[in-house]
Specification:
By secondary structure, the protein is an alpha/beta fold. It is built from 10 helices and 17 strands. The strands form 4 sheets. Strands 3, 4, 5, 8, 9, 16 and 17 form a 7-stranded mixed β-sheet that branches. It has a 6-stranded parallel β-sheet with strand order 12-11-10-13-14-15.
Amino acid sequence: MAKIQAWAAQGAKQKLARYEFDPGALGAEEVEVEVEHCGLCHSDLSVLNNDWGISRYPFVPGHEAIGKVVALGGQTKGVKVGDHVGVGWTAESCMHCYLCLQGDQHLCLNAQPTIVGHAGGFANRVRAHWAWVIPLPAGLDATTAGPLLCGGITVFNPFVLHSISPTARVGVLGIGGLGHMALKFANAWGCDVTAFTSNESKFEEAKRLGAHHVVASKDVKAIKKIAGSLDMLLVTANAPLEWGALIRTLRPKGRMHVVGAVPEPIPVQVFDLIGAEREISASPTGAPVDIATMLEFAARHKIAPQVERFPMSRVNEALEHLEAGKARYRVILDADF
């Protein structure tokens, strides 16, 4: 196989530079995808900086890759050369453990993240196990689909995981890279949607994205006014918040579900849970079938992330843009090797 051209960092917090490597022989169950577009996610930045202590270098970021299948191992299934596909956070799982066999491949203890000890999609080609190479449905815009493979499934999966009714009242806390897609999904799901944001300049934008109501997330009085009204509060933010007041926005048997990387422990008064049988939960991305379902839902309802574009050759500029908090709301890199 030809060598792969990529952008890589040689150490934590270093700038990315052009990098060429030999991927070796294509595995029997591997698929090689020619990358056309790849989303830039905040998780790429976290792994680049080794914020989570799991990074390996040289580090090739990129786990929201969109492209065409160009090579197949001898035992692959479900895709063929020429298919338009996506590769998200996971590149491989064992496919034989209890979790994999029951359809929770994303929770496999031996799952291989696409960007940890594996070369990601900031490259001309990326590889993954055939089960994790997801065909794009007709009608989905491939040029903007990349962020759906990580951020999109992260906010979509809770609706499936907890059987959220289309008549439910759903709150989305944090209107950023995750939250803006959550508003679109919740609205298309049929829910009554409340957006929580600390930035008043986003109030009208939140409504354009799908919110029916908007609440200032740092205004305790405003939060208290909607106490007991939500069936689910989806937390996409990663900052300390008014947790007690937010939990009390839930109806009896309501759920606060966390998908944002909140950096500090969440304080919980157990009586806020016990008396109303409220629950707190969390989740990562999703299994391949859930990703495929999410993409079909997005295609049917014309849901796409709001994106900014950079050529991949300006990847360091794009990383600086993201780190400065200027992205509205996702960044996509267009391959230009």
